Amino acid sequence: MKRSQSTPKSEAARKIDIRGVAAKARVSIATVSRTINHVPTVDPVLAARVWSAVAELNYFPNTQARALVSGKSKLLGLIVSEITNPFFPELIQEFEQVAVERGYEILIGSTNYEKKTIEQCARRMLERKVDGVAVMTFGIEEVLFERFAVDNIPVVFIDAAPSRPLSSVLAVDYRTGIYEGVQHLAVLGHRKIGFITGPLRLRSAEARKAAFLDCLRSTGLKADPAWIIEGDHTLDGGRDAMQKILALPQWPTAIMCSNDMTAIGVQHALFEAKLKVPDDFSLVGFDDIHLAEYTIPPLTTVRMSCKDLALRAVNDLLSHLQDSPAKPEAPSKIITRLIVRQTTGLPKDALADLPGKSTRKKSRE
């Protein structure tokens, strides 16, 4: 029987491999391999021809085969605390964008602060043979150090980490942003400022509280222990903490929060109590999640850039993966700064004693 000739349609249906890309681009297979693996020394003209052929042929590299050949999975792990906090999806988006630009895919794990889940995250990363892991949990879990250290997997942590090869730290400058927040409130005339912390078992929450107290002292203000309430970085935690403050015989005139989710919960508690921001209380958050700009009124907050965190984390991991990795001399510093919106204003009745102003009795004072 005479074999039928290939039609253009059947030709198009054939599976395209790296040899087809090399033929189309008129380059060697090695050049195609180096190009799709983002090797920077490839001639730009040849690389452009390769990418043009990849697009025209709709070629998808076999990542598993590449991993077997190179010994690298081209996969970076990202472990976060809780996916329900809007800060972390924003961080994941930025991390993935930076990683993909550098030729890597990402594997995501969320711990929910549970030891069993933390161990499962570590196991998944090891089973998939990730090239490096960014632990963006804002809480140090020792089990993660041990798990990844055994396989010599580079790890980047936030805030603090044991000194070991292939590890580095992203040090968040909590003090600068919180100091700007305290100074902003003090300039507005606030002398009674409360603070709702995160879970104090977390190093980051303790660091934010310590920064707040230090900034109060440096500004010459006193901290009332009754106005320092432990929260849990959630909406419900912010509402509950604010309800505790409202039950006190005396109120502060301003509240700072350890994160934006807490601050939004505070806003809801004040709405339920028929109180207004900033008329009755000024309010400052921390993180500057995207939602902060859309609360009513928009939230004054301390920005900790997800984009900056993601960029530094990926860069640190890739520096460890170099043939001759250079250990960072000092932790990468993540800058924070105050973003002033509309939840801060003068203390209640601050202008009541001016001529032509009616005097109102201060609530709970």
Number of domains: 3
General form: elongated
User: Which architecture name of the largest domain does CATH use?
Assistant: 3-Layer(aba) Sandwich
Assembly annotation? single chain
The secondary-structure element order is HHHHHEHEHEHEEHEHEHEHEEHEE
- How many whole angstroms does the radius of gyration measure? 27 Å
What is the C-level CATH assignment of the largest domain?
Alpha Beta
Helix-strand makeup class: alpha/beta
CATH superfamily caption of the largest domain: Response regulator
Strand content: 15-25%
The third-level CATH topology of the largest domain is Rossmann fold
Summarize the biggest pleated sheet: 6 strands, parallel
Which ranges are low-confidence, i.e. pLDDT below 50, for 5 or more consecutive residues? 6-13, 358-365
Strand order of the largest sheet: 2-1-3-4-5-11
Query: What does the average pLDDT come to?
Result: 85
Helix share, percent: 40-55%
How many angstroms separate the termini? 101 Å
Quickly count the helices. Answer: 13
How many β-strand runs?
Answer: 12
Overall description:
The protein is α/β, with parallel strands linked by helices. It has 3 domains: 17-61, lambda repressor-like DNA-binding domains (434 Repressor (Amino-terminal Domain), Orthogonal Bundle), CATH 1.10.260; 71-173 and 307-331, Rossmann fold, CATH 3.40.50; 174-304, Rossmann fold. The protein is 42% helix and 16% strand. The chain has helices spanning 8-13, 18-25, 29-36, 44-57, 63-70, 87-101, 115-127, 142-150, 174-188, 203-219, 235-246, 260-272, 306-320, and strands spanning 75-80, 105-110, 132-136, 155-158, 167-172, 193-197, 228-230, 254-257, 282-287, 300-304, 332-334, 336-339. The strands form 2 sheets. It has a 6-stranded parallel sheet with strand order 2-1-3-4-5-11, sandwiched between helices. A 6-stranded mixed sheet has the order 7-6-8-9-10-12, sandwiched between helices. Helix 12 links the parallel strand 8 (254-257) and strand 9. Helix 2 (18-25) crosses helix 3 (29-36) and helix 2 (18-25) packs across helix 4 (44-57). The N and C termini lie far apart (101 Å).
